[in-house]
Design brief:
Layout (H helix, E strand, L loop, with lengths): L21 E4 L2 E6 L2 E2 L10 E7 L2 E8 L6 E10 L36 H7 L1 E10 L6 E8 L6 E3 L10 E11 L5 H6 L15 E8 L4
Antiparallel strand pairs: 1-2, 2-4, 3-11, 4-5, 5-8, 6-7, 6-10, 7-9, 10-11
Length: 216
């Protein structure tokens, strides 16, 4: 399985260079980025993600397009608290998973990708829900979410955000497909809501991302 197909494998090296400028904002720092397609890292026109870094945490606003009307989509913070410890100086999927020389997953016997616990520990990775909603007619959407230093109330794994100014932050959107009766709340509030629990959690699909390098 290619390592670009699922959320937990979205970390591509090319993403590191795809971020916008930094400016002062309300006592913090604001970074902006266009959104990018997972399939080929291409820019999605007329989109913008804005990350505000403050002493107590992060706030993100994503204005995006080219999503499927009626689908449940969630947004996620992927935080590398110690980006200087990422492998090769770039934070990516090999900090989370064990990969072979071709960049493919070294799968466990059950087909699930083994976690790179050394890499996760070294870069101190933490994954948190940012937002979730049902996409409206037209395929455009605005996601807004905050992450407070030390908060683990909506964590998938990890110990939380340590320093809002020093962390490298990736924002990723996951498409959970069309809503399922009785499961809408789960689909907009969890990583695999409406999808299989087993890897690769079909039909959930990673669709868009943005990357924010830590403050210089």
């Amino acid at each position: 399985m290619k390592n670009s197909t699922k959320f937990m494998a979205f970390f591509t090296g090319i993403a590191i260079a795809l971020f916008g400028g930094v400016s002062a904002y309300a006592g913090g720092a604001t970074q902006t980025s266009e959104m990018h397609n997972f399939a080929d890292a291409s820019v999605i026109a007329n989109t913008e993600a804005t990350l505000v870094r403050m002493g107590g945490g992060l706030h993100v606003t994503v204005d995006t397009a080219e999503l499927t009307p009626g689908h449940a989509v969630t947004a996620w913070f992927v935080v590398f608290n110690s980006p200087g410890n990422c492998s090769g100086g770039e934070c990516g999927e090999n900090d989370i998973f064990n990969l072979d020389g071709e960049g493919e997953f070294i799968l466990n016997a059950d087909g699930s990708p083994p976690m790179n616990m050394d890499g996760i520990g070294a870069s101190n990775i933490s994954v948190h829900r940012a937002a979730g909603l049902i996409i409206d007619v037209g395929g455009t959407a605005q996601f807004m979410g905050s992450l407070v230093v030390g908060d683990v109330s909506e964590v998938v794994f990890g110990g939380g955000l340590v320093d809002a100014h020093l962390a490298e932050v990736h924002i990723v959107l996951v498409d959970h497909q069309g809503t399922i009766a009785g499961k809408t709340d789960e689909m907009v509030n969890s990583l695999t809501g409406g999808c299989a629990d087993e890897w690769p959690n079909e039909p959930c699909t990673d669709v868009q991302f943005a990357v924010f390098i830590h403050d210089e």
